[in-house]
Structures are given as structure tokens and as C-alpha cells.
Design a protein that fits this description.
- The complex is a heterotrimer of chains A (about 160), B (about 120) and C (about 250).
- Chain A has about 160 residues and is an alpha+beta fold.
- Chain A is built from four helices and six strands; from the N terminus they run βαββαβββαα.
- Helices cover about 50% and strands about 25% of the residues of chain A.
- In chain A, about 35% of the residues are buried.
- The N and C termini of chain B lie close together (about 5 Å).
- Chain B contains three helices and five strands; from the N terminus they run αββαβββα.
- In chain B, strands 2-1-5-4-3 form a five-stranded antiparallel β-sheet, sandwiched between helices.
- Helix content of chain C is about 55%, strand content about 15%.
- The chains are: A alpha+beta (about 160), B alpha+beta (about 120), C alpha+beta (about 250).
- Chains in contact: A-B, B-C.
- Chains B and C meet through helix 2, strand 3 and strand 4 of B and helix 8 and strand 3 of C.
- Strand 3 of chain B pairs antiparallel with strand 3 of chain C.
Chain lengths: ~160, ~120, ~250
């Protein structure tokens, strides 16, 4: 597990243990990665973050089109062997996104249950003052731009 | 079977003294399909844990070369969780306190699970 | 010359072989009785009573397997055939399988509730059935249906029943420990307090898991016909035996 913000580590560790999730990614709504577990290549992290943020943004627009006033809080993709849980949630640092990949050892129900607890714990654990992490944030933005270029073949 | 009929079935279960809630759970994903419960019982949590218990129970039975379980019943200090298989992947689940007449509940769940399709 | 007279099961003359075969059997003339029964069966292969007669003769001859086959044939033709159910119960009783004997006799009693011989047989089987207080718990035997394992899913002793070996017992310990962990978690989160026992009921077995202490759980496997209350009573006593075993082993 890798975290940019140390206070995210404990709630995320508990979430991973209780939900038996295989992969997890916590990011800002712009796709900046806050924490990840299970990914082995940074490119995969960047791609998953960009796609996850994109899917949630797209679905938000779809919610507007169909008149879903409060949007769709959660998107679940359920496959034969594994599923993906994608959800936005509010924190004192703004709107964040969680992307969770789970297998047959878990279920949507368990991920839902422990993800809710995770977001509650995260909100409670968030420091009151926001530390300035400009350098690191810029680094992420740059890496994200590079990953998007790589993904979509732009130069 | 229709959702209103399922709800009628669940109300019959919660009519037994000591039953705090009854729900139909999709064991595949641990989500609530229909429910009838008292305030304070988080049926979504019950569904998630019931599905997880059922999945673990099925794996244990497989390891023992036994047929898959059709009833899973857990007793704890302050109550019980009783789950009976309906048509796959549905399970009928009841949560009780310690005052429940377990034999009666067991029979009713068994009878109702047969028509849970 | 070929006899072309139609012989229906209800024809008294045609079914005389049943009475003759039974009288020969009771006199101990088993070979002659078998000849009569087989000749009758050749003419009336769809007659449950004929299969029942042959089964009784085979049972008297000590040939349990053919007897069981014949009684099953009778039950296929006539589900709930009382003679076949009584016969199967008798074979099970002779093999000291009281659970099966009781199951067959209960089915016979449902079909023929005023048959005093069935009620007497049920009393006999039930009195011969070891109750929880007389049950012995052999924790060190693979065939005992008692499996003690630790929180890490390692088998401490025992196995999962007759005909199973160490590999099944080890696999069951590994999976059942996950089930026990889930029981701890579920009851904690649902505010039900510490879990005490968990029961799984399937078509061929009933299984109880009992918490022995923080690091050990006992699995008890019994036939599907075991009444749930009796399974739990048995599991509670087996848990005492397991605690004693752990006391000596640790």
C-alpha cells in the first residue's frame, strides 16, 4: 500500500482487511492519486485513476441528462471473476473518489458496507489544516498528464 | 414471485416474537432484495454478512465433499441469524434476539424458502 | 405348452407364490423359498410384494446387499412400501446404523400409523440409539466426524467422517477457520455479541462449528437425519472433550 497522506493509511488498511478487496485507489475528482493498494506498475495506477475519474464524471453528466437530481453516488461493474466499485465521497479536502477491485472472496455488499465505514473514518481522521503539498501535487499532475498522453497516444 | 408477495412473506416472519428482521438476500453480491425489519437493524449490513457467511459455508462443505448447505444458522450471546436457501441465488434470512421460538422460526423459514423463486 | 392366462397382480391364484414363498421362508427352507420367489418375480416383475419377499429371503440368507437392492426395487415400484421400509430398517439396525433404521421406520409409521410392529421396532431402535450422554468422542480418529483446528486453519486433530482422509480434513480445517472468522466478525458487527455455535444443514450432512476458545474451533459432522437439537447437544459434549484434549496437548 502506498499513501501520500499518512492519515489515510489506517482507515484504508482496515478497509482492505475487512472487505478483502484486491486493488484500491483513492484519488481526487481530477484524478490525482492519494493512495493505492495492489497495483504493481505506476502506469496502471495512472491509467486506472484517469479512467475512474473519467467514468464518474461521465456518469455525473448522464445523471444530469436523465434528471437524477443527486447524481449516481456509486457505479458497480460486476464481472464473472471480479467486480469494480467506483464511488465519490466528500472529505474536508474536497471531493474524492474510491476505486475498488474485488474478487469472489468478497461481494458488492461487503465492499459497500466497509467502503461507507472507510469514508466515515477518513473524514474523521482528516487534519483540520490543509498542508501545502504543491510540489508533490504538481508532480502528480505532471505524471497524470504523461499517463493520459500515453493512454490516448498524444505527443 | 412479486415483490409485494415477498414482503407479505417477510412480514409473516417478523410476526414471530423475537424476530428483529427478515430479508431476502442475493447471496452472489450480498445485497438486499426485499426486507421487513424493526428500526435499528441495518439490513444492508445483515445482507452483506449473511452472504459472506453463506459463501464461506459453501466452501467448507465443498472441502468436506458434502452437498452445499441449504440452511446456515449462527447463534451468538444476544441473538441468532438464520438463513435458508431459496431459488439460487436467493436466501431468506432472519435476525432474532434470544427470546425467539427457534423451532417455529426454523419451520416457517423452511416452508417459505421453498416458494422463494 | 405356453400358459396364456392373463395374470394381474390382484389375481388370487397368480399370487399364491407369495404365501407359499413366505411359508417356506418361515420354515427355514430358504433355497426353496428363493426358487418360488424368483419364479413369481419372473411372472410379475412389477409387483413390489414379490421383490419384498425375495429381499426377506436374501436377508435371512445373510445376503444383505441383494436384499437391499430388492427392497429398493420394491420402493421404486411402490414408494412407501411398508415391508420394504421395515426390511431396510432391519438391515440398518443389524449394522448398528440406528439413525438410518429410525429414518426408515419413521417413514413406515407415516404410511401405516396403526402398525404396532413398527411402533415396537421404533421403540427398540430408539432405545438402542446412543444418546448424547453415552456418546463417546474419539478426537484422534479421522473417521470420527470431529475436527479440531486452530485460528490459522491448521488441523489440530480429528477428521471429517468415515471414508475421508487427512487431505479432506486439512482442507476442511482451512476453510472452516475462515467460516469461524466470518462468524466472529458478523456477530460483532451486527451487535449480537460473541458467537457460540454455527450449524450448516445440507442434503447429506449436518455440521456444527463450536467455539472452543480464542484459538480453537471444533467442527462436528453428523448424518443429515440427526435432529438439530441432538446435533447441538452432541456438539456441546464434544466441545468439552475438545477442551480436555487441548488441556493435555498444550
Amino acid at each position: 500500500m502506498r499513501v501520500l497522506e499518512p492519515w489515510v493509511a489506517e482507515p484504508l488498511t482496515e478497509f482492505l482487511r475487512e472487505s478483502s478487496a484486491r486493488l484500491a485507489l483513492v484519488m481526487t475528482s481530477s484524478g490525482q492519486v492519494i493512495a493505492q493498494h495492489g497495483f504493481t506498475r505506476s502506469l496502471d495506477v495512472m491509467a486506472a485513476a484517469a479512467l475512474g475519474a473519467g467514468i464518474l464524471a461521465t456518469t455525473g453528466e448522464l445523471a444530469n441528462v436523465v434528471g437524477a437530481e443527486h447524481g449516481f453516488g456509486v457505479i458497480v461493474h460486476q464481472g464473472q471473476a471480479q467486480g469494480v466499485w467506483l464511488a465519490g465521497f466528500d472529505t474536508p479536502r474536497g471531493r474524492w473518489i474510491g476505486l475498488v477491485v474485488f474478487g469472489r472472496e468478497s461481494s458488492v455488499g461487503l465492499v459497500r458496507l466497509f467502503f461507507t465505514r472507510f469514508t466515515e473514518r477518513l473524514v474523521a481522521a482528516a487534519p483540520v489544516t490543509v498542508p501545502v503539498r504543491e510540489v508533490l501535487a504538481e508532480g502528480f499532475e505532471r505524471e497524470l498528464d504523461e499517463s493520459l498522453r500515453a493512454l490516448f497516444g498524444r505527443n | 414471485m412479486s415483490i409485494p408477495r415477498w414482503e407479505g412473506m417477510l412480514r409473516e416472519i417478523t410476526g414471530i416474537v423475537g424476530v428483529r428482521g427478515a430479508l431476502i438476500v442475493s447471496a452472489d453480491d450480498g445485497l438486499v432484495v426485499a426486507e421487513s425489519a424493526m428500526d435499528g437493524l441495518e439490513t444492508t449490513d445483515v445482507a452483506a454478512f449473511a452472504a459472506s457467511l453463506i459463501s464461506r459455508a459453501q466452501r467448507t462443505a465443498r472441502a468436506m465433499h458434502c452437498a452445499p448447505p441449504t440452511r446456515v444458522h449462527i447463534t451468538a450471546e444476544s441473538g441468532t441469524v438464520f438463513a435458508v436457501a431459496g431459488d439460487d441465488p436467493l436466501w431468506l434470512v432472519a435476525v432474532t434476539d434470544t427470546t425467539v421460538e427457534l423451532g417455529r422460526l426454523r419451520l416457517l423459514l423452511g416452508d417459505l424458502a421453498v416458494v422463494l423463486t | 405348452m405356453t400358459d396364456t392366462t392373463p395374470r394381474l397382480p390382484g389375481t388370487t391364484q397368480g399370487l399364491a407364490f407369495l404365501d407359499l414363498g413366505e411359508r417356506l421362508r418361515q420354515r427355514g427352507q430358504l433355497d426353496a423359498a428363493a426358487t418360488v420367489a424368483m419364479a413369481g418375480l419372473a411372472r410379475y416383475p412389477a409387483l413390489a410384494d414379490a421383490h419384498d419377499l425375495l429381499a426377506r429371503i436374501r436377508a435371512d440368507q445373510g445376503e444383505d446387499a441383494p436384499a437391499i437392492s430388492s427392497w429398493h426395487a420394491a420402493l421404486e415400484i411402490e414408494p412407501g412400501h411398508v415391508g420394504a421400509l421395515k426390511g431396510l430398517a432391519f438391515i440398518a439396525f443389524r449394522a448398528r446404523d440406528m439413525v438410518t433404521a429410525e429414518r426408515h421406520l419413521e417413514a413406515a409409521a407415516v404410511r401405516s400409523p396403526h402398525d404396532t410392529t413398527i411402533i415396537a421396532a421404533l421403540d427398540r431402535v430408539r432405545s438402542a440409539t446412543p444418546g448424547p450422554s453415552t456418546e463417546t468422542f474419539r478426537l484422534d480418529e479421522l473417521g470420527s466426524g470431529l475436527l479440531l483446528f486452530d485460528a490459522q486453519g491448521m488441523r489440530l486433530t480429528g477428521g471429517v467422517g468415515p471414508g475421508t482422509g487427512e487431505s479432506e480434513a486439512d482442507a476442511a480445517a482451512a476453510e472452516a477457520s475462515g467460516l469461524a472468522r466470518e462468524a466472529v466478525r458478523a456477530t460483532r458487527f451486527l451487535g449480537l455479541g460473541a458467537w457460540q455455535h454455527l450449524v450448516l444443514e445440507g442434503a447429506d450432512a449436518r455440521v456444527a462449528l463450536v467455539s472452543i476458545d480464542a484459538d480453537a474451533t471444533l467442527l462436528v459432522r453428523r448424518p443429515a437425519t440427526t435432529p438439530p437439537g441432538r446435533l447441538l447437544a452432541s456438539a456441546a459434549r464434544a466441545a468439552d472433550a475438545a477442551r480436555e484434549w487441548l488441556g493435555h496437548s498444550r
